[in-house]
Amino acid sequence: MEVTMPGGVGITVPSPLLKPSDIFTRLPRSINVKEKLAHVIEAVTLIKKELKGKVPLIGFSAGPFSLMFYMVGGSSKKNQQIASTWLNTYPFESKALLDLLTDIIIDYTSAQIEAGADLIQIFEAMGEFINEADFYKW
After folding, report:
1. Residue 20: phi, psi to the nearest 5?
2. Which helix (H) or strand (E) holds 65?
3. 124: which DSSP letter?
4. Count of alpha carbons within 13 angstroms of residue 89, beta-carbon side
């Protein structure tokens, strides 16, 4: 999916997932993170080398809820209700998307560690919109 970061607007997804079937028709079943994000992994390796052990290198990724919220809402917190509605209206498709995103995040953060990251930070910016019961459900 295309993601943009226009100044002063925040993260946007110009063509978000509009219907549940989009999860199965527009998204791949898996992603080779080391191939698709090779530039990031290479940057981690180069930065680690340049740091020469002076400070730890922190890798990072958005969390699955945040990624889902962007992918179905099209933007940051402004459209959070769209994703909240998806979770309740389309539980099968929501679980499929969250499972896919979780697998990708695991591969992505693992690749960063292999490339030299000393620790990983997962940013779950949309976590404030998930109530405790739904957090454990999903």
Report:
1. -55, -35
2. helix 64-73
3. -
4. 9
50: CB partners within 8 A, 6+ apart: none
SS3 assignment, position 121? strand
Whole-number Å distance between alpha carbons of 122 and 56? 16
The answer to whether 11 touches 65, Cβ cutoff 8 Å, is no
State both tokens at 38: 């090779």
**Segment 8-34, tens digit of pLDDT:** 777 888 899 999 999 999 999 889 999
pLDDT tens profile 96-130: 999 999 999 999 999 999 999 999 999 998 888 88
Neighbours of 43 (CB within 10 A): 13
Paired tokens of 132: 């405790």
CB 27 within 8 A of CB 99: no
127 in Cβ contact with 66 (< 8 Å): yes
For residue 59, which of 126, 123, 12 has the smallest C-alpha distance? Answer: 123
- Which residues does 118 contact at the CB level (< 8 Å), separation at least 6? 56, 57, 58
